[in-house]
Amino acid sequence: MSDQFDSDTVAKLIARLNRVSSTSLADASKSTTPLRELSCEITAVRPELKLVGRAITVDASDGLLSMVAGLKIAVAGDVLVVRGSKSGAVSGELFATEAHRIGVTGIVIDGYCRDRSVLLEIDLPIYARGSKPSAPGTSALPVIQIPLDIEGVTVQPGDYLVGDADGIVVGSIEEFTTVIDRAEEIEKFEAELRAKIVSGSSLLDHMNYDEHLAALQSGNESKLNFS
């Protein structure tokens, strides 16, 4: 945690992040430092669950002891961000149950999980590339709290993650603080616009489509706006 953010400030930010979508955060960050997005191939086991938390990074590519080491240092509000193993799943029902018990708010695996039928019953957001029945060994020494590269996206220990059915965005506490106001404005605006459409108003009446298209066809810079 950055020294300029005390625990109360962080708690209030996390509460706000739990109320906004990954899409609003991504859109809000376009005009600042864009938030990092994890691969769309890392998907939610339970898409209805919201993920918000601080990263504990785990390199379990050589075995499961790293997962145990990550769980040992994790506290309530943390998210285990895991480099998985090609030889099998690095988290299943037991690790997930323990993570939930201690208040971990999610597990994000650049690799595989297992025991999906049980994971579907645990109120813990889990993301993975898929599932495998097998698991890697337990002989390799644990590796935790290192920068993880996930398809060109670096997750640092202490970064924050916000995930939902659309995917996961990653940023520092400073980056999320910078964009949260704008993300909330986007949420409010889009909810109001959707209500108008549901009530019968055409989306096209709330867009500058014709003007925008004409400007582009004339070689001028323009932006598609909604009102």
In short:
The protein has a domain at 35-171: Glucose Oxidase, domain 1 (3-Layer(bba) Sandwich), CATH 3.50.30.40. Helices cover 33% and strands 21% of the residues.
CATH H-tier superfamily of the domain at 35-171: Ribonuclease E inhibitor RraA/RraA-like
Distance, first to last CA:
38 Å
CATH topology of the domain at 35-171: Glucose Oxidase, domain 1
Compute the CA-based radius of gyration: 20 Å
The structure class reads alpha/beta
Can you offer a commentary on this structure?
The protein has an eight-stranded mixed β-sheet. It has a two-stranded parallel ribbon with strand order 6-8. 33% of the residues lie in helices and 21% in strands. It has a domain at 35-171: Glucose Oxidase, domain 1 (3-Layer(bba) Sandwich). The protein is elongated. With 227 residues, the chain is of the alpha/beta class. The protein is built from seven helices and twelve strands. Strand 11 (160-164) and strand 12 form a beta hairpin. Helix 1 (7-17) runs parallel beside helix 6 and helix 2 packs across helix 6 (173-198).
